[in-house]
Structure to design on (1396 residues):
C-alpha cells in the first residue's frame, strides 16, 4: 500500500463522519485507520452507516484510543474541537476540522455569534477557511483547514464572483431552503417524522450564524456585505438551495454576470453554471446533486424590479461538508482534486 | 329546502372545482344544481373527486346544458371566462369567477402581464376583488366577484396592515414556496412524479404575474409597492408559504407591527397571527392549514440588518381559491361568514 | 348549553388525544371539560395541537386534578390504563379507553402477547370492543368501551363479512403499510426524519400484536383464523392500508364477495366498498381518507392463483383511534352516529 | 483509448437509457458512441439527463443514424425491440435488450401474458436471461442478453436459493412496493404529482406480468412455483421492495435458510444478506440502495404461523435495469464484474 496516507476520523458516527467515510473508502491514496465514536465503541461502523456494508469491516473505537495519523478529520459538535485541539495537534500532521470552531478568524466575532468563549483563540488565524475555490493556494500550504458551514459554502460560491467584480450592492438577502440532515443525527421533536415531514418551517427567519462566515469571506476590497439570511426547512433529507436577492449596480447586464462567473470559475471542476432555456432543470436543483461535490449556480435578472436573483444548490453533506473536506485534502496532498469525488448524481431521484 | 340558493359550477373537474364542490356540499344554505365538465360529461363527479364518494350522486353535465341558477361559480382556465362572460350573466344572478380574467381593473395592465387582449374590458370595473378582509362591504353589494390568485391572496393579507399603517418601505421581496396543485390538474413533464417529487425548483425566479394584483391592491394612499416575487416549487401537494423580506421604516418596532395587525384583523375569523415563543409551530406552517380557510401570519425583526421578515401561509385551494369564493358568497348573501368553512385542519399530517 | 355531556380526556398531549380534541370541539352535544398532560400542565393545548388555534382556550391540567365527568376518554400509553382504571371508574360514568389494555377479553392471551401481567383482569370482560360495525348493540348498553388497535380495525372490517359468510379459508396474510403517526409523539432515532423519510422499513415482518385482537374478533362460529401480519413503515404521516391475501373457498366468485359486503355493511355510514373500473382511485387509498372516519374496502380475485386480495384503508388516527371512539360515544349516548365525524377528506392532498 | 469497446444506446432518453449512460460514462473499457432519441434528436443528452452536465458533450441522434458498434443496448418500450431486432443484429456484435420482448423463452407464454403476437419468436431461445447470479456462464458465451424485469429480478434473487434447496412450498405471495420511475418517463394522470405524491395505490392487486418470468426462472427440478403478485405504488421515485410470504417445508429452520443463501451467494459481489439484531436498517431498505447495483435480502420466520417472510430490495433502475445490463456486459467481455458499478449508496438520503 505504497503512497497511502493514514487518515482517521474523530467523531465518525454522525452524518458528516459517515459521508467522510463513504468518500475516503474509495480514495486510492488513503488508508482509513481509525474512526471514533464514544457511543458506538466496539460496534461495526456499518451498524450506523448501513450503506457501507460489504465495503468495510472497520469498527468504531473510543476517542481516547486515537493513534497518530497523517491526517485527522474532526467531525465533532460545535464547541468541542476548540477544547481538544491542543491534544489533537500532537496526534496528526494535518487537521481538517468540519465544525464551526475555527472558521472565523476573529475571536470577538466568534464569541458574538456563538455566544460562548473561544478556548483556543491563538489558533484562529492558523486555520485556513476550507473553500478551495477561494483559498486553494493557502490550503495547499496549510496544516490546518476549517471547512465552511454548508449554508455559507453555497452562499459564498454563489456571490463571490459578483462581489469580486463589483457588480452588486451590499444588501444581500439569502432565502435558504434547508434539509433535515443539516440538523444532525440526534432525534428531537423538531425532527420527528410526523412533525418534520411535509413541513415548510421558518425555523430561523433571522439571525442565522453562517452569516458571520459569509461576511468574513465576502468582505473584499473594502466591500462589506450586509447579509440577511432567512432559513426555511422543507421536506428534504439532503440538499440545500439558496435564492439570493441582490441589487445589481447600475447598468449591469446578464452578460456581465455571465462573464464574472466564467472568469472566476472557468477551471473549477465542481462549479457548474446552470441557466438553461429548455428542459425541466433550467436552474440549480439540489435533488440531482445528492452524493455529488458540485455547486450549481444560476441567475436571472428581474426586468421590472432592480433585482438580480441568484440561485445556487449543493449537497449539504458533500460540497457542504465531507466532500469539501476531501477536496481540501486532495489539494493539501497534491492529489488530483476530483479524486474520490467523481460521483455524477442520480436522475431521476 | 327553504331558503337555499341554487348554485352551479362551470368547470367542475379541476382542483378548484372539486374543492368548491366539497365545501358547497356541506353548506346548509346551498343547493348544488349543476357541475359542468366537457371531458367528463355523463360521469359521476366522484370519478374525478373520489373524496366525495357517498356524499353526492351528481354527474357532470356538458357546459352547454347549464341552466339558470342563483349563483354561478366559474372555474375555467385563464382567458376563458372573459370569452363566455356575456352569456353567463344571463344565466346567473351573481357570478364568482375563480380565474384571473377579472382581477385587474385596468385593461392595459391586464394585457401587459397576461400577453393577451382582454375581450370584455367594460366588465373589469364591475368585478370586485374577492378578498373579504379588504373589500367586505363592496362584496356585500356586488353582483360580480373575481377571486384573487392564491399567491396574491397570501401576500396581500400579509402586507396590507403594514402598508395601511405606513410601516414599511416600498421595495418588497416575496420568496414563495409553492405546491404542485397550483399548476392544476393536467399532467406535464414538469408535474411527472419522478421529476416533481423532491424538487426544489426555481420555476419562476422573476416575473410572476400575481405581482400585478398585489400592486393593485397594495397601492394605498399614494404608496406604490415595488413587488419582486421569486417562486420555488417544493415537494408539497397543497399549501403555499411566502417569506416576505421588507425594510421597516425608521424606528418601527415589533410592537408597531403587532398593533397594525391587531387593528386591521382583530375581528377577522380567518386570520391568525402566529408568532410563538415555544412549540414547534412558532410561525405559520402550511401543512396544518390543509383544508382550512385560514391565513396564518407571523413576523420577525432582523436585529442586524434593517429588515422585517413576514411569513404567511394558506391552503392555496381553500383560502387561495375555493374557500375564498365561498367566503365571498357568504358575505354576498348575508350568511354567517364562516359557514361551511369551519374545518380546523389536521395535526399531525 | 342544554343537553351537553361533560367529557374529559386523560392523556391529551399525544396524537390520539389531539385528534379526540379536534373532533370533540365541534360536537354539538359535548362540552370538553378537562384535558390532562403531566408534561404540558398549565400550557395551552394549542402549543401541542397548533391546528386548534382560535378554536379553544383550554389549557392542560395535571392528571391529579381530573374532576368528575360524564364520559372519560383515556388516551394513555399501553399498560397505564389498567393501572389507573379502578380510580377512574369513580371519576366518570362511562369510560372509553383508546389503549390496548382492555381490548382482549382473556387475561392469558393478553399476557402472552403483551409480555406483562394484567393488573385489572376482572374488568377485561366488562369492556366492549369498540368497533360499532360489529358490536353496536353492546356498545349502546355498555359503560366501558375499549377501542380497537388501528391495524386491527382495518383488518377486521375488511375480513369480517367474508368470514361471517364462510367465503374464505383460515390462513390470512395481512401485508400492512404503516404511517409514522402510529408510533406516537415521542421522537426516537427510528422516527428521525433523515432516517424515516423515504423509508420502506420492514419493522415488523412477523409478530404484530394486533393479530391477537383480530383473531379474537374473527373467531366466529367455530372458524379460527390464522392471522399472519407483516408491517412495513412507509413515508406517510397519517393513514394505513392493508393488503390481505386470502384463499377463497371453492367456487366463490366476485359476486359472492360483493354480496357479503353489501349484506353486512349496507347501512353502515362509514364503510365504502371501493372497486372501480375507471379513475385513478379504483381501490382504497389512505391519502384521501386523512381526517375522515371512513374505512374503504376493495377486492380483486386472482384469476391465476387461487387467491383473493382484499384492500382496505383508514386514517389510523380517526377510524383507527379517535374517530372510532367518538363513534362509540355517539352510539352510547344515542346521538346520530355521524355527529362530528362528517369531514369528507381532501383531494388532492 | 486502447481496449475500449464501442457501445451505443438505442432509446437513450428514458430513465433506463439515462441510467445506462451514467454508468457507462465512468466505465474504463467503454466508449459510448451513439445515443438515439427520436424526440430529442440533435439536443444534448444533458437536456434530458441533467445529472450528466460537465460529464459528456454527447447529443442524441435519430435512430436511423445508428452506426455499427461492438455492443448495442436496446432500451425501447415493450414490443418495439422484437420489431427491430432483425436489423439491429446487423449493427452490433452483441445486443443487450432491457425490454420485455426476449425475456420469456416460450412464444405462447409471451403471447398469453403480453396479449400480443411475437414478431421474432425464432430468437426467443437465443437470448439469455440477464441475471448473472443465475446465468453467469451462459451470459459469458452469449451474443444476446435480455435483462430481467425489475420486479422479477428482486423476486427471483430473493427466492432462488430457497427453491434450489427445496426449502419452501410452491405457493408464493409477493407483495411489492413500487416506485414511480418504474412507470417510465411519460407523464400521465397517474404520475401527476398531486395524485401520485403520498399515494399508496393498489394499482395491480393481481395479474402482474413479471410473474411469467419468475415462474420461468424458478421452475427448477420439477418445482413449479405458484406466483401471486400484488403491486402497490408508494411515494418513492426510485427503489423497489418485495415482501414474499411463503410456507417453509416441515422442520425448516432459520439456520437452513441462512445456509441456502450462503451457499448460493457466498461469492456474489452484489448480494448482501441483511438481517441484523440492531440498528435501524435491520432488513433490506431500498432508500440506501439508490444508485447501487446491490440486491439486499433478509428474512424472518413467523413463530406462530407456518410462514417465512423474505424481504428483498433493489434500485429498480440499477440492479433492476441498467446496472444489471452493465453487469452482464462485464461478464460477456471478461471485465471485472463490478466495474463501473461500485457506487456505495448514500446515507442518510
Amino acid at each position: 500500500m505504497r503512497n497511502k496516507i493514514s487518515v482517521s476520523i474523530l467523531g465518525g458516527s454522525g452524518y458528516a463522519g459517515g459521508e467522510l467515510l463513504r468518500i475516503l473508502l474509495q480514495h486510492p491514496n488513503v488508508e482509513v485507520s481509525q474512526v471514533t465514536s464514544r457511543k458506538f465503541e466496539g460496534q461495526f461502523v456499518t451498524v450506523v452507516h448501513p450503506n457501507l456494508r460489504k465495503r468495510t469491516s472497520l469498527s468504531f473505537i473510543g476517542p481516547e484510543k486515537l493513534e497518530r495519523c497523517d491526517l485527522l478529520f474532526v467531525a465533532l459538535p460545535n464547541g468541542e474541537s476548540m477544547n481538544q485541539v491542543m491534544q489533537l495537534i500532537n496526534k496528526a500532521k494535518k487537521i481538517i476540522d468540519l465544525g464551526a470552531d475555527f472558521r472565523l478568524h476573529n475571536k470577538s466575532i466568534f464569541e458574538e455569534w456563538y455566544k460562548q468563549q473561544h478556548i483556543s483563540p491563538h489558533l484562529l488565524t492558523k486555520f485556513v477557511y476550507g473553500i478551495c475555490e477561494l483559498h486553494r493556494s493557502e490550503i495547499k500550504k496549510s496544516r490546518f483547514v476549517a471547512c465552511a458551514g454548508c449554508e455559507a459554502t453555497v452562499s459564498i460560491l454563489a456571490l463571490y464572483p459578483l462581489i469580486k467584480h463589483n457588480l452588486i450592492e451590499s444588501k444581500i438577502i439569502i432565502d435558504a431552503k434547508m434539509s433535515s440532515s443539516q440538523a444532525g443525527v440526534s432525534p428531537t421533536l423538531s425532527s420527528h417524522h410526523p412533525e418534520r415531514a411535509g413541513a415548510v418551517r421558518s425555523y430561523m427567519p433571522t439571525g442565522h450564524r453562517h452569516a458571520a462566515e459569509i461576511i468574513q469571506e465576502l468582505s473584499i476590497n473594502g466591500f462589506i456585505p450586509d447579509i440577511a439570511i432567512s432559513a426555511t426547512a422543507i421536506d428534504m433529507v439532503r440538499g440545500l438551495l439558496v435564492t439570493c436577492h441582490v441589487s445589481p449596480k447600475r447598468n449591469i447586464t446578464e452578460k456581465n454576470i455571465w462573464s464574472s462567473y466564467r472568469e472566476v470559475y472557468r477551471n473549477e471542476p465542481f462549479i457548474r453554471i446552470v441557466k438553461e432555456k429548455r428542459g425541466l432543470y433550467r436552474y440549480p436543483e439540489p435533488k440531482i446533486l445528492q452524493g455529488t461535490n458540485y455547486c450549481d449556480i444560476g441567475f436571472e435578472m428581474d426586468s421590472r424590479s432592480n433585482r438580480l436573483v441568484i440561485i445556487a444548490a449543493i449537497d449539504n453533506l458533500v460540497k457542504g461538508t465531507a466532500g469539501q473536506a476531501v477536496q481540501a485534502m486532495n489539494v493539501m496532498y497534491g492529489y488530483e482534486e476530483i479524486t474520490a469525488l467523481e460521483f455524477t448524481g442520480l436522475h431521476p431521484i
User: Anything to note?
Assistant: The first strand of chain C starts at residue 5 and ends at 10. Residues 5-125 of chain C form a domain with the Rossmann fold fold (CATH 3.40.50.720). Chain C has a mean pLDDT of 97. The interface with chain B takes residues 15, 18, 22, 25-26, 47-55, 181, 237-238, 272, 274, 276, 278-281, 285, 288, 290-291, 294, 342-349 of chain C (CB under 8 Å).
